[in-house]
Specification:
By secondary structure, the chain is α/β, with parallel strands linked by helices. It has 13 helices and 11 strands. Strand 8 and strand 9 form a beta hairpin. Bound molecules: 4'-deoxy-4'-aminopyridoxal-5'-phosphate. 4'-deoxy-4'-aminopyridoxal-5'-phosphate (PMP) binds next to helix 5.
Length: 342
């Protein structure tokens, strides 16, 4: 792990983390008078398990990954933010992103005062290994990839990704927020053999839990330990841990909703394809479609005037004229189709 240690901010490598009252004894005594809580039971009077052992054990089983390789965050956005803070020295270090991509990488870089370099995707929205390597220099700490990519929905070519993980001298983060919708299984199988790889995933999308804010990062135990050291002690609250466990045990609902979203995506794509105003529908392994219109701004406003909010991605690289449309319920999709047909 020497080559990874070198990438971590030195002051954090030696950081003595906050020792929360419950890290050691969570749930393992009769009387807890150690954390200045209110003793009167109301289901939420106690601090949550800071290491989320029960939830991690469920996720470990689902994903086939050891609990020591799992970090849980307040949404995967928190995981991404902590990854920035673990590796990048503010005002000095930089990261590489591959536009068009998820907007938070740049925002988090700006918040943390980290420079951003860009290595654009091809017109087929694939990475170019050489142009990423060309952007690399000594201050580059992290490369952010997103697969399936937002805002397009395509998955990155596996061979290219493995190639860049092997050649990139910094950390490679692959954001797999939409992986549950994909026909491919993503890159989770690589975390134990590629020491510089971190994968992020979320329960906000396919699992339908955006409201409780629960995201994951997967990596080797060394990196996961380092992220855990710098996280807020009780970042996953009691209600989130409880509801997540309930939902994760209800696989039937998950599968039913997932099947609906997949078939609705096909239906929506087929209907949009018949419309003259639609110029192109991009291949998507996610729960949205990037759609090129003959006049995106006009249709954005037209839909808004009819009570439908889509995302205008026209100003993003390679996305001129495009709106990003999330797959809704069958009724919502029918309504959108009907209004567009008018
Ligand atoms: N990554 C991507 C690519 C996303 O699109 C999103 C949400 N829009 C996130 C991460 C953040 O998800 P979370 O709700 O887990 O913070």
């Amino acid at each position: 792990m020497k080559e990874i240690e070198r990438l971590i901010r030195p002051e954090l490598l030696n950081l003595k983390p906050y020792s929360s009252a419950r890290s050691e004894f969570h749930g393992q005594a009769d009387i807890f008078v150690d954390a200045n809580e209110n003793p009167f039971e109301n289901k939420i009077n106690r601090y949550p398990d800071p290491l989320q052992k029960e939830l991690k054990s469920k996720i470990s089983e689902m994903k086939g990954v050891d609990p020591s390789c799992i970090f849980l965050g307040n949404g995967s956005d928190e995981a991404l933010d902590l990854i920035f803070r673990l590796f990048c020295i503010p005002g000095k270090d930089e990261v590489i992103i591959t536009p068009p991509t998820y907007g938070m990488y740049k925002v988090l870089a700006n918040i943390n005062n980290i420079f951003v370099k860009e290595a654009a995707l091809t017109t087929d929205f694939q990475i170019v290994v050489d142009s990423i390597l060309k952007q690399y220099d000594r201050e580059t700490k992290i490369l952010f990839l997103c697969s399936p990519n937002n805002p397009v929905g395509n998955v990155l070519n596996r061979e290219d990704v493995i190639n860049i993980i092997d050649q990139f001298p910094g950390i490679v983060v692959i954001d797999e927020a939409y992986i549950d919708f994909s026909a491919t299984s993503g890159f989770l199988d690589l975390i134990n053999e590629k020491p510089n790889l971190i994968i992020t995933q979320t329960f906000s999308k396919a699992w339908g839990m955006a409201g409780i804010r629960l995201g994951m990062a997967f990596s080797n135990p060394f990196i996961i330990d380092q992220i855990n050291k710098i996280k807020p002690p009780y970042n996953i609250n009691v209600l989130t841990q409880k509801v997540a466990l309930e939902k994760l045990n209800d696989e039937e609902t998950f599968k039913k909703n997932l099947a609906s979203l997949k078939s609705e995506k096909l239906k929506l794509a087929a209907e949009l394809d018949k419309m003259d105003v639609v110029k192109k529908i991009y291949e998507s392994d996610a729960n949205f479609l990037l759609v090129k219109f003959d006049d995106a701004d006009h249709y954005y406003k037209y839909l808004l005037d009819h009570g439908i909010v889509v995302r205008n991605r026209s100003n993003q690289f390679h996305c001129k004229g495009c709106l990003r449309i999330t797959i809704g319920t069958p009724e919502e999709n029918d309504k959108l189709i009907k209004i567009l047909k008018k």
